[in-house]
Design a protein that fits this description.
2 copies of one chain form a homodimer. With about 475 residues, chain A is an alpha+beta fold. Chain A has 3 domains: about 15-275, 2-Layer Sandwich (BirA Bifunctional Protein, domain 2); about 290-385, Rossmann fold, CATH 3.40.50.800; about 405-480, 2-Layer Sandwich (Translation Initiation Factor IF3). Chain A is about 35% helix and about 25% strand. Chain A is built from 14 helices and 25 strands. In chain A, helix 2 (about 40-60) crosses helix 6 (about 170-190). The longest helix of chain A has 26 residues, at about 380-405. The interface between A and B is large, with 60 and 60 residues.
């Protein structure tokens, strides 16, 4: 539906490269007529569906149930939790008129649903027997953003938001960690995108949370993408919405809540983790088309035999559960087809011509690296799945290697400033004195922010040191990077 | 999460019965704090997910692709199609402020997406090679409704909207029919809800359509529920949004478009087609829990053996793909469990106690009618699926019989008025002179509306007659009923 245009190389202009990959991959386009919004095109939406389905299974396997709450939230609800309203006020879209009349109380279009869900939790929860209550919602949300970029930050985006209520703080905290774990598992095993699990500093945490955790991934420009967050809300929303339960002793207590979410932003992370100067690269587990099969023939008389064999291969592989596309479009040259599917990120391309039939094999090529290989006809059903698995692993290892090569421990301010000079970024583990003042000062000088304090087992072990900026005592290194 | 309350019998108060079934089935509740909106609770949402997944497969199997367009639509877009804006203006929710500032041009929250999608179709379509373009969107929409009822009519609802563009009117019309067929197939084969396929009269058609088709189902009070619509939009939106293509002769033409949708309203139809005075009744194909297995034991020493056997049955049936729930909640009596699952509409209940184990069988009961039967242990895996299939068929046949018993051909005005007197309704095939004036007069006097003109093969064959109201010539009978 669009002409093929050049993809700007990453070295030349990273931001433009990203936009080019999105456009040439036919993933999305800016809505323009609706400020900061995008249209998610079929290929992009198909990746989102795979993302949604995989996560949804993981949520259900851990006992969560989906539900749906109203898009609109009375303005007064937001004001019930002081930090929450302060955090979200600047970003609200407000409905003032409905059915031709001005509303008595304006509604906000949900930027997130803690408040309206808190209201219903208060009605649904009475005793400890009703807990834990484990709810998830797939929905669209709106946050009025000044600077937007497709998938990474848009005024409207699609996401899931988990909302749970528990009888004890301990249990809520465990849920917060469990859901972060699920996000990390999804990022690493499905997206092939390595992540650090971190706890956010006070100034970076969610408006209304006690503790916010996140998974942080490294993009190819060395910047961090906060890819999923999980919040221990304490009793903050319980108190704001009077969500109480009778504990086993018959006493009334406020519930302990969590919330957690990932969004279409993940697709931005997916794109920026794997794609190259030839366009989109998709890990097989999230690729709407995992294998494309291109018939090769020069003469019309070769056509029937090649297409017949291709159809047989297509049908066999489809039966094994592989998402395969036979690109038999007439009047399009193989080279043009290769080019198109390459830009759409298809992990494996198979080609079959008369000589391949003679030799009893099919030619296969992975989307990145790796030479062309030949697979014997009778081994296609075992070898192609192996190739996909290997490619999934390859992408993960390549991304991990890139992150390792671009993650440093830095112990003096000059080196630290250098890392972040001239628009550059890497991941830096450095000591910090734990104050918001120092955090702000570092951010103002370098644009690097604290992405988080590593969770046990993720990142360097705690060791005492001196703050990179002030020289004050520090108990452990934290993760610095510029961020999307 | 809620106390069990009485379900008002249908005979006593049909409207209250419906609300009671929704509440006791734990399907949804009115949001109250957000005008006309509802919360879809987990059990209700799970039915919607099954609905969505089944329809989505049917759409994809017929070549449609999902995409996602912005929630907000510039007000000026609606005004580009004169009938469209006239139809939707009274129902709009309007966003006037974003990010703390008043917007230059207000946005409406989409009541449907023909306009914004038309805008993008104009960018995407250039030549006949880009056609047909077959897009579907799963989304929430908002229509400011004065009188709302859960699922049947809510201010915000969930739906899918298909939007397609074609090179010829003939092809667009065929698509309109094809999608109506898919809706009818889904209604009949999945929901076990018989429907009539009809063409809407001028006054009942979609704002901006050339032709609107619908499937009409009979509810248990004899009223009709318009359950799905499919519209031939002609070139109306093509002209409004300048969606042109180069045809094979190299000439520029406006595309021919269709749109079609079903919504969470379907769940209202599902509830009102099958449920009874004991609560919800679900057809197996859409039941989140198809089979519940309740262990029966009086003494603690019986418990282990019963639960062990139940677990084995549960695991075996689960492997066959049946959605089975083993209700082993301690401290809850079997009778209370029966009652709860009955209200949630579970199609088949299995019970197993020590005596059943001795006799080598399990006791089974369908949700409605039918006696208790006993299934031999070694036949469970074959017999339970058969029972579910039989129940699905039974529900369809029961609904069809009900519709047949409540559908009449009426040829004089007194009888016609009688059918619709005192809040009553049936389906009536009657002659109509084809004028909007007569249609309005009939509606004003009886509250019955023309549900549609039957499509070929659906409803009585065309035969000349005299209009029920004016006595003027009529070529065929049309379907009258009161409607939701």
């Amino acid at each position: 539906m669009s002409d093929i245009k050049r993809i700007t190389p990453r070295e030349e202009d990273y931001s433009q490269w990203y936009l080019d990959v999105v456009r040439e991959g036919d993933l999305a386009e800016p809505a323009r007529v609706v400020k900061g919004c995008m249209v998610i095109k079929p290929h992009g939406y198909a990746i989102w569906e795979k993302t949604r389905d995989a996560l949804d299974r993981m949520f259900k396997d851990t006992g969560h149930q989906n539900a749906y709450f109203p898009l609109f939230i009375p303005m007064s609800f937001l004001k019930k939790e002081a930090q929450h309203v302060e955090g979200f006020s600047p970003e609200l879209a407000v409905v003032t008129h409905g059915g031709g009349e001005e509303l008595e109380e304006p509604y906000v279009v949900r930027p997130t649903s803690e408040t309206i869900i808190g209201h219903f939790f208060a009605k649904w929860i009475r005793s400890h027997a009703d807990l834990p209550l484990l709810i998830n919602q797939w929905a669209n949300v709106v946050r009025w953003e000044l600077r937007t970029r497709m998938f990474l930050r848009t005024t409207e985006f699609l996401w899931q938001e988990g909302h749970t209520a528990h009888a004890t703080h301990e249990e809520a905290y465990a849920e917060t960690e469990r859901m972060l774990d699920i996000y990390a598992t999804f990022a690493e095993q499905w997206m092939a995108m390595p992540v650090f699990r971190t706890v956010k500093t006070e100034s970076e945490k969610f408006a209304g949370a006690e503790t916010s955790m996140s998974i942080e991934a490294m993009m190819q420009d060395g910047k961090a993408l906060q890819s999923g967050t999980s919040h221990d809300l304490g009793q903050n929303f319980g108190k704001a919405f009077d969500v109480t339960f009778q504990n086993e002793k018959g006493e009334s207590e406020y519930v302990w809540q969590t919330s957690w979410g990932v969004s279409t932003r993940l697709l931005g992370g997916l794109i920026m983790t794997h794609s190259d100067d030839n366009g989109l690269v998709l890990p097989p587990k999230l690729a709407p088309v995992q294998v494309v099969l291109v018939p090769i023939y020069r003469k019309e008389k070769e056509r029937a035999a090649v297409l017949e064999k291709c159809t047989a291969i297509h049908d066999d592989l489809k039966k094994t559960g592989i998402a395969i596309r036979l690109d038999d479009r007439p009047g399009k040259r193989p080279g043009d087809k290769f080019y198109e599917w390459e830009r759409k990120g298809v992990p494996v391309r198979l080609e079959l011509g008369p000589r391949d039939i003679e030799k009893g094999h099919v030619s296969a090529k992975q989307r990145t690296e790796g030479e062309r290989i030949f697979i014997k006809m009778d081994q296609i059903e075992t070898e192609v799945p192996k190739l996909l698995e290997a490619f999934q692993e390859h992408l993960y290892n390549r991304a991990l290697k890139f992150r390792e090569e671009n993650t440093l421990q830095v112990d003096n301010w000059d080196d630290f400033s250098d890392v972040f000079a001239d628009g550059k970024s890497k991941f830096v583990w450095a000591h910090w004195d734990g104050t918001a003042g120092t955090e702000t000062a570092i951010k103002e000088e370098t644009k690097a922010t604290i992405r988080g304090i590593p969770m046990p087992g993720h990142g360097p072990e705690p060791e005492p040191g001196k703050c990179i900026k002030t020289g004050a005592e520090s108990a452990r290194r934290v993760l610095f990077a510029k961020a999307y």
